Amino acid sequence: MVLVDTHCHIDRPEFDLDRDEVLARARAAGVERVIVPAIGPGWWDGLLSIVEARADLLSCGLGIHPQEIPALDPADDAKAIQRLGELLQAGRAVAVGECGLDAPTAAQPGGGMERQVRLFEAQLGLARDLRLPVLLHVFRCQGEAVRVLERFGKLPAGGVLHSYSGSAELVKRWSRLDLHFSFTGPVTFERSRRIHEAARAVPPDRLLVESDAPDQPPSTRRGERNEPGFLPEVARALAVVRGEDAEELAARTTLNARRLFGY
């Protein structure tokens, strides 16, 4: 089974003591590439150092996560977007993100939805102009997010809804925007009925898998730090949910990821 982990925060401090060992276990488990999304300006340089030192296995996205917005000075928003554009234009990343909208964050000072949308649209503009895919975080605001994307229009390089949590009914609407859908640990839980229904609704050529490590471990690893090496469990569970052969599903998701991220 050969897999691509399309969303893994291997740059997080949880991996500082054994990052190389974690990546070795991922390779041994059949993971051929790991996409590492940035969450904010303060993380960009460290992430780039990690990824560029392991270009054999790692690629990255650069962006501003909505949950990071309250910690940023609004006066620096334009400067952050400018620097993000410069890094992306220099070819330092394969995607824009992680970016998007987060309803709980909107309740925090400085994290209001208006500011989130403004920064989100600025990053969508970079993705459009530089023809890069976008890594989307959408939490408890699927309706608002899809409306933003529909107003903005299709992106030339598409993108992916990471850890998709929307309904099966919304899959068609998102699909019209040429986006992919990625699933992680929750798909392995028997009671994740909403996620299972959505997973069955995704077209085969739009399906991806991810670890979202160190978060969202599969059911057999509940309470543990998640790793990209656990990704085969996600692929097998997703295959069961969809009534498909696990090896064939893994091959298809890997082909989809290679096409999306252009390697």
Can you tell me about this structure?
It is a single chain. The protein is of the alpha/beta class and 263 residues long. The protein has one domain (3-261): Alpha-Beta Barrel (TIM Barrel). The protein contains nine helices and eight strands. It has helices at 19-28, 41-53, 77-89, 113-130, 142-152, 168-175, 193-201, 231-242, 246-261; strands at residues 3-5, 31-37, 58-62, 95-102, 134-139, 159-161, 179-183, 207-209. Strands 1-2-3-4-5-6-7-8 form an eight-stranded parallel sheet, sandwiched between helices. Helix 3 packs parallel to helix 4 and helix 8 (231-242) packs across helix 9. The chain is globular and about 50 Å long. The two termini are 18 Å apart. The mean pLDDT is 97.
Please summarize what this structure is.
The protein is α/β, with parallel strands linked by helices and 263 residues long. Helices cover 42% and strands 15% of the residues.
